[in-house]
Design a protein that fits this description.
Radius of gyration: 20 Å
CATH class of the largest domain: Alpha Beta
Strand order of the largest sheet: 2-3-1-4-5-6
Largest sheet: 6 strands, mixed
Order of helices and strands: EHEEHEHEHEHHHEEHHEH
CATH topology of the largest domain: Rossmann fold
Number of helices: 10
CATH superfamily of the largest domain: P-loop containing nucleotide triphosphate hydrolases
Bound molecules: guanosine-5'-triphosphate, magnesium ion
Length: about 300
């Protein structure tokens, strides 16, 4: 039997279902998701192990027209990540028309001759069969306009699990012949600390609106098992950009922050299999999304 392995970079506009897809394919939550655009802010690898191959999925921030230095850095991060993968899989959500944002990404990936290109029509559970057919045509037309070809165009639903097995088979079939690149059973390279920080951010994103989701950043200040090894102590800071946002995050008499802490704690306990004590505090880092110094400090 032949064995294939390699890197598949998942790209697309914000909110197109990239991270949800990665979690569904890996079968475990390696990337946080939300209904707010620009949820993913780092490159995250998720590894799929099959009998005849290994797919290293690379999740990326959604490419968008940047309005802050953070946005600019995230776009640059995607472009450097893209340069070095075997397959580029671009996501188009079935519930939205193809627009200028997609064409901009199309132009970007057109130049990357070395990698094979696959189009994924995501969220097919949200539209009718007719709509799916129409979108598939539009995706084909986009490539024709840019004078290149999709290796495959595959409609999927990560939520329903539709076509995910087919997608795995297709992806392996176009990866290079190679021995496994990661040990069996490894599903991500993220450190526990990074995963914990993201779970806290995910909990904080739920239920906030407008500009606030973008303004949230989480830093794990300390993470240590208690001496009896029965409890993990975590101290974390939740950064926002303004005092008014701090008030919203904390909520009346601290109720919102408490909810965020509880949701995050349960998720962390599930992930790490140990009881958690979470000390979560809110801090203001004025305009951190636009401030190079603050961005560096927060790891961007
Ligand atoms: N109905 C439905 N919703 C989906 C599906 N896949 C993703 N979603 C929803 O779409 C929203 C965005 O999903 P994400 O996976 O966070 O999107 P993303 O492309 O990673 O977004 P960014 O990281 O911001 O670029 C979330 O609310 C998901 O629950 C799907 O197959 N069906
Ligand atoms: Mg994402």
């Amino acid at each position: 039997m032949t064995f294939r392995a390699g890197f598949v970079c998942i790209v697309g506009r914000p909110n197109t279902g990239k991270s949800t897809l990665i979690n569904a394919l890996v079968g475990s939550k390696v990337a946080i998701t939300s209904d707010k655009p620009q949820t993913t802010r780092h490159v995250i690898r998720g590894i799929v192990h099959e009998e005849n191959g290994q797919i290293i999925l690379v999740d990326t921030p959604g490419i968008h027209r940047p309005r802050t230095l953070l946005g600019k850095r995230l776009n640059e991060l995607v472009r450097t990540t893209l340069a070095d993968v075997d397959v580029i899989a671009m996501c188009f959500p079935a519930d939205q028309p193809i627009g200028p944002g997609d064409r901009m990404i199309g132009v970007d990936i057109q130049e990357l001759k070395r990698s094979k290109k696959v189009a994924l029509l995501t969220k097919t559970d949200t539209v009718s069969k007719d709509k799916v057919a129409k979108r598939l045509m539009e995706i084909q037309e986009l490539a024709e306009k840019l004078e290149w070809n999709w290796e495959h165009i595959i409609p999927i639903s990560s939520v329903k699990g539709d076509n995910l097995e087919t997608l795995k088979t297709v992806l392996i079939s176009i990866l290079p012949l190679s021995p496994a690149l990661y040990p069996l059973g490894a599903i991500t390279e993220e450190t526990d600390e990074a995963l914990v920080g993201e779970l806290i951010r995910e909990a904080a994103l739920a239920g906030v609106h407008d500009e606030l989701p973008h303004s949230i950043a989480v830093v794990i200040e300390d993470m240590e098992l208690r001496e009896d090894k029965k409890m993990l102590n975590i101290q974390a800071f939740l950064f926002v950009e303004r005092d008014s946002q701090k008030g919203i995050i904390i909520g009346k008499q601290g109720t919102r922050l408490k909810e965020v802490g509880q949701t995050a704690r349960l998720q962390i306990e599930k992930l790490l299999g140990v009881k958690v004590y979470l000390d979560l505090r809110v801090k203001v880092a004025p305009d951190w999304q636009r401030d190079p110094k603050q961005l560096n400090r927060l790891g961007f």
